[in-house]
UniProtKB/TrEMBL annotation, chains C, D:
High-level lineage: Bacteria, Pseudomonadati, Bacteroidota, Sphingobacteriia, Sphingobacteriales
Record InterPro entries: Beta-grasp_dom_sf, MOCS2A, Mopterin_synth/thiamin_S_b, ThiS/MoaD-like
Designated name of the protein: Molybdopterin synthase sulfur carrier subunit
SUPFAM superfamilies: MoaD/ThiS
Top-level lineage group: Bacteria
N-terminal signal peptide: none
GO cellular component: molybdopterin adenylyltransferase complex
Swiss-Prot/TrEMBL keywords: Nucleotide-binding
Biological source species: Mucilaginibacter pineti
Family: Belongs to the MoaD family.
Pfam families associated with the record: ThiS
BP GO terms, sorted: Mo-molybdopterin cofactor biosynthetic process
GO molecular function list: nucleotide binding
PANTHER family: MOLYBDOPTERIN SYNTHASE SULFUR CARRIER SUBUNIT
Amino acid sequence: MNNTQIVLSSESLNVQSCIDWIMSPESGGIDVFIGTVRNATKGKPVLKLDFEAYEPMAISEMEKIAQQAFEKWPVQKVLIHHRTGTLQVGEVPVIIAVSAAHRDAAFEACRYIIDTLKQTVPIWKKEAFEDGEVWVAAHP
Amino acid sequence: MNNTQIVLSSESLNVQSCIDWIMSPESGGIDVFIGTVRNATKGKPVLKLDFEAYEPMAISEMEKIAQQAFEKWPVQKVLIHHRTGTLQVGEVPVIIAVSAAHRDAAFEACRYIIDTLKQTVPIWKKEAFEDGEVWVAAHP
Amino acid sequence: MKINVLAFGVAKEIFGSSLVSLELTNDATIYNLKYLLEQQYPRLKQLASYMVAVNNEYALPGDTIHERDEIAIIPPVSGG
Amino acid sequence: MKINVLAFGVAKEIFGSSLVSLELTNDATIYNLKYLLEQQYPRLKQLASYMVAVNNEYALPGDTIHERDEIAIIPPVSGG
């Protein structure tokens, strides 16, 4: 579908190329969510993050979420880019971009996509601290 | 304040430089709203838009909105860039960017800022159609 | 006192100018100013609404106008 | 039948491998698979939760497993 762009990549994500792809003369509002690797979790310094994905299923689940966004809101284009591999503090694990004729739909769909991605897409993040590594959310 | 960047400019807005400014190692989520000039209003082709601002008051009102965002949500940086002058279809009249440790605050503050900007900041837009020009929202 | 009133957007077209001068009494309020302007430029009353700003702040109808205040007519805004 | 189970994230560490092989009866369900795995790898029960995917789709406990299905253990996801 040329109104959807899903990418799972071990290379740096490029915000500008996402913006270039999402903009169109039909759209009036674009909402972009950019996740970044924070330097601390609950006050504890983070050294780096490792992202692992079950790649074919992750792409399939991201496509489902994009499809749901089109069903729920009058949006024009949906972009989801996610990184894999090792990311340093300040790097970008995820970019979501949504264009729509009106901003309500763009904001709501963008929010829905990142919230749902964090619940359903098989990607796992391991945080490296000075005293060891932890798979995020694995244990109660 | 070095956590706030307000710009009113007759030059093209640059999304990448906004992203570069808003990103920081403390932030985990960034929400960016980009307004674009749509090629039609209620099905009628739009040729161009002219933006006029009461500049000192527009800047002062944008600063107030940024300040309110800091009071209402735990956000780290707020950026508001707005164009003046003549814009063609596809050009960008406004960019709002908000960074926060967590995405909830970034999304809610970004939405609040664009909604409030459209209600209070003294900037006016004139739409040029094939059969004439109209100041948007001027008349009931 | 003589005051200058800045006009923007559609108000500039209604006034035929980006600045008009008015003679007001010394204790004049925003309400008085709007009444005078609407007498002189009846098309103002056809606007969806309009506000008056004094020194870059939105003013209330009861606010008093002082000499040298920067007064501006703010028709419905439509930025963003 | 013999099936291969893919493991990701913390499950890979619990299994000590990204792929383990199991012998299942022909009418085995996801429920049966989880029971067997938890017998063999008790640390699975310490996870906040985990799902099983069959051919890239989340499966329900009652779903039957077929030979050649691609089975994967999905510990709590944490992307984004």
